[in-house]
Amino acid sequence: MNKIAHLRVYSIKKGMETDWIKLFNKKLIPEMKKAGIIVETAWMDKENSKFIWIRSYGSTEKDIEEKEKLFYESKWWKENVNYVRGHLGENREITVIYST
Q1: Which residue, of 26, 34, 39, 57, is most buried by count of CB atoms within 10 Å of its CB?
Q2: pLDDT, mean of residues 83-88
Q3: So what's the pLDDT on residue 27?
């Protein structure tokens, strides 16, 4: 079965890279997992303060819609969205990708 995923590239505010990685690993990954979103891999381009990661949803675009809705409507996200986004710079790139 093919997977559908997002390749995401975020700019991280200078000086917040270490805090972002801790937040991502300790809070965001478990919360996304509760919604059925799986973090496949994550990388940090320290030189350019870019965070590159892939999160998968299942096999259809409907899976993306359903799982993102669960995550973004969760109590945890609503209580922490401003804190999480406070680490991010202005650039966010999201590309839908498919396994082969």
Answers
A1: 57
A2: 98
A3: 98
Position 58 pLDDT exceeds 90: yes
The structure tokens listed for 93 are: 């790139």
Domain boundaries, the chain: 4-98
CATH number for the region 4-98 comes to 3.30.70.100
Residue closest to 62 by CA, chosen among 86, 28, 36? 36
User: Are the C-beta atoms of 23 and 39 separated by less than 8 Å?
Assistant: no
Q: To the nearest whole number, what is the mean pLDDT of the chain?
A: 97
Q: Could you tell me the two tokens for 68?
A: 């993102």
d(CA 96, CA 38): 14
CA-to-CA distance for 83 and 7, rounded, in angstroms? 22
C-alpha triplet 13, 14, 20: angle, nearest 5°? 60
For 4, 32, 42, 80, 88, the CA distances from 7, given in Å and listed in that order, are 10, 15, 10, 23, 16
